[in-house]
UniProtKB/TrEMBL annotation:
Domain of life: Bacteria
GO molecular function: endonuclease activity
Stated name of the protein: ATP-dependent endonuclease
Keywords for this protein: Endonuclease, Hydrolase, Nuclease
Short name of one Pfam family: AAA_15
The Endonuclease GajA/Old nuclease/RecF-like AAA domain, residue ranges: 1-394
Coiled-coil regions listed: none
Domain OLD protein-like TOPRIM: 443-516
Length: 662
């Protein structure tokens, strides 16, 4: 059995969120402040049985809360109507046991299976933080705030009373729900829910020391070795643990006996006043020594230097290794805990930002081998949830395990990348390979800029700063340089493959590409061959992204082979260059000429720098250099006040003005 889906309603940003859960590992990625960790916190609250606070109730729902309670206090609606109209904080767990043998004991899941149909293979559990069924208590808590001198009054005191008494007004209730008939449900004990879902959270802010400044995970693990019975221990360590226990037991006996004798002599010799005499019971001392407690509480991790047997304390090692070792101990401790449950429960493990202090290669290794490590230390199927801001972690995971958090004005949704893969089979392989090869941070950006090549990648950050200084971004309080954008070098031949993916993620995206004007000539075999020419000679474009975009705007098939006249492309309006949250820009005519690449556009608008006359043609601005990278670097270092081509400035202004939350 395994958890397959989680639904959360009315918890902070999670107004109506659904998270599809993978059998082994689910990775949640997204921008900052998009509720990646909120899911963990909500589940942790519920499984701990902790009450929610007023701050957990979403802003969008509070006005309705105030209004409905006021109507009840004014006696305009009944208590039963109030209970129905108030939206509770709720969470649903959908458990799939279709792969279990029908004869198997489903253990802790059994209390939540209330559908007697043998064909039903899912169990639905709902937990609600809902209004307590105690009308008198509610009235008693709020009456003084709503009635001043016997007159019904609405003011700040009424709101404050709800805030202060929120946890008293509501309570957690656990239901087993019939997945086929949602109205059919049974109240269950919270203990039954906790037994079904043993869970452990490894937070992002984890202390990494093993130097006595905290209850170390190493000490906790060693305590388990002393407390477990032999049949509970991993067979690979049973022999060594038995050996350690034997040494400790013998040492305890020897030290106990010797210390008792010496201390008894010291006490007898020190006590005077004639007592005790030889005819009475003699004084003695019994000291309870426990070496195993010392081992449990005082054992610290250290690092030894080979055969020299010299050692250094844990705090002398790098934070990345300490973080990795710390998580290994915590994972091992949790694995030992859930081994006692066997297959009768569904263990949930939450790891927040495992990449802390790790270098990229270590992040990659952690993500790649996490499942193998858990499989090695326990046979129980632990379902793991990760959150991450690391492109190295995200791009190591297969798409089916990734959930992208998108934040809108209506709340946060968890998008399953498998859904996109199924809907876009022709694009998904390229996107997956590109993300893996480049480690791009598309999942964590507010906005994206796709550029043609190395020249754009080198020049765009400088151009953005120049536009900001010139006041081109002043229409927004937070200007583009301060916004979290990612710059992705993809080229006109492939940028269009990313457009459906960008739309799926809901990120504003600017595509800067080249016009790539070409002229066709007919070969001896009757086939048309195209060569690059200045724009004034061009009859069409060789740029696949522009062609894809133009066909989409005209409602044509992507497979359409018709030639697209270059004039139709150059005459596209700003609206025609915008498709949803994506905007396309390419070279336009400036000072009477139009380049067909970035380099030509720059030469055209910076004629003095390149020693070009005013009366030149498009042939004269042709870029004939061998290295576009050198061209970009020379411009930055040799010409501080160069002019930015209009198409780039236009695109950057568009991106600057795009809203993230819609």
């Amino acid at each position: 059995m395994q958890l397959s889906k989680i639904k959360i309603k009315n918890y902070r940003l999670l107004i109506d969120a659904e998270l599809e859960v993978e059998p082994k590992t689910t990775l949640i990625v997204g921008r900052n402040n998009t509720a990646k960790t909120l899911c963990f916190e909500c589940i942790g609250n519920v499984l701990d049985g902790a009450p929610f606070s007023f701050n957990d109730y979403p802003l969008q729902k509070r006005e309705n809360l105030y209004t409905k309670i006021a109507l009840f206090m004014e006696k305009k609606i009944t208590f039963e109507e109030l209970a129905k109209q108030l939206e509770p904080i709720s969470i649903e767990f959908l458990v799939d046991y279709s792969l279990d043998d029908p004869e198997d004991n489903l253990g802790a899941l059994s209390p939540f299976i209330i559908d007697v149909d043998v064909d039903t293979t899912t169990a639905l559990i709902r937990v609600e933080f809902r209004l307590k069924a105690d009308e008198k208590a509610l009235w008693k808590l709020l009456e003084e705030s709503y009635y001043k001198d016997g007159v019904f009054t609405l003011d700040d005191d009424t709101h404050n009373a709800i805030v202060a008494n929120f946890y008293k007004l509501f309570e957690l209730t656990v239901y087993a729900v019939n997945p086929k008939i949602p109205e059919e449900k049974q109240v269950k004990k919270h203990k039954e829910l906790k037994e079904l879902f043993p869970f452990h959270i490894i937070p992002a802010e984890r202390l990494l020391g093993e130097d006595g400044t905290q209850n170390s995970s190493l000490s906790a693990l060693i305590s388990d070795f002393f407390d477990m019975s032999e049949d509970e221990l991993d067979p690979s360590i049973t022999k060594k643990v038995k050996e350690l226990r034997s040494i400790v037991e013998n040492a305890n006996k020897s030290v106990q006996q010797q210390s008792n004798e010496i201390l008894s002599t010291l006490v007898s010799s020190s006590v005077g006043f004639g007592y005790p005499n030889s005819e009475e019971l003699q004084l003695g001392v019994t000291t309870q020594l426990s070496i195993d407690e010392q081992i449990k509480n005082q054992t610290q991790l250290s690092y030894t230097a080979g055969a020299s047997k010299e050692s250094l304390p844990s705090k002398y090692n790098g934070l990345g290794y300490k973080n990795l070792i710390k998580m290994e101990f915590l994972l091992a401790a949790f694995a030992k805990k859930v081994e006692k449950c066997g297959t009768a429960c569904i263990p949930l493990l939450f790891i927040e930002e495992p990449e802390s202090h790790m270098h990229p290669q270590m992040q990659h290794a952690f993500a790649e081998y996490l499942e193998a490590f858990l499989g090695k230390i326990t046979s129980v199927g632990i379902q793991t949830f990760l959150t991450s801001h690391s492109a190295h972690v995200a791009n190591t995971m297969v798409f089916s395990k990734i959930r992208y958090t998108q934040k809108t004005k209506d709340g946060v949704t968890y998008k399953n990348l498998s859904t996109f893969a199924q809907e876009n089979p022709t694009n998904i392989d390229f996107i997956r390979k590109y993300l893996t090869l480049t480690k791009c941070d598309l999942f964590f950006a507010d906005k994206a800029i796709f550029v043609e090549g190395a020249s754009e990648r080198l020049l765009l950050p400088d151009m953005i700063e120049k536009c900001a200084k010139a006041g081109d971004f002043d229409s927004q309080a937070y200007k583009l340089p301060a916004q979290y954008y990612t710059l992705i070098e993809i080229g006109g031949a492939y940028a269009y493959k990313f457009i459906p993916f960008i739309e799926f993620l809901g990120i504003p995206c600017l595509i800067l590409t080249d016009l790539d004007s070409v002229l066709g000539t007919e070969g001896k075999n009757g086939r048309t061959y195209y060569k690059s020419v200045p724009v004034y000679l061009g009859e069409t474009t060789s740029n696949k992204t522009i062609k894809w975009w133009w066909r989409k705007s005209k409602g044509l098939s992507e497979d359409d082979k018709g030639k697209i006249p270059l004039t139709e492309i150059t005459l596209m309006t700003a609206d025609e260059k915008t498709k949803g949250k994506c905007h396309l820009e390419f070279q336009t005519k400036e000072q009477g000429l139009c380049g067909h690449s970035l380099e030509e556009a720059i030469r055209n608008v910076n004629r003095a720098h390149y020693e070009l006359e005013d009366t030149i043609t498009e042939d004269d601005i042709e870029f004939s250099g061998k290295s576009k990278t050198d061209f970009a670097l020379d411009l930055v270092y040799e010409c501080d006040d160069y002019t930015i081509p209009a198409y780039i400035k236009s695109g950057l202004k568009w991106l600057n003005e795009q809203k993230i939350l819609e």
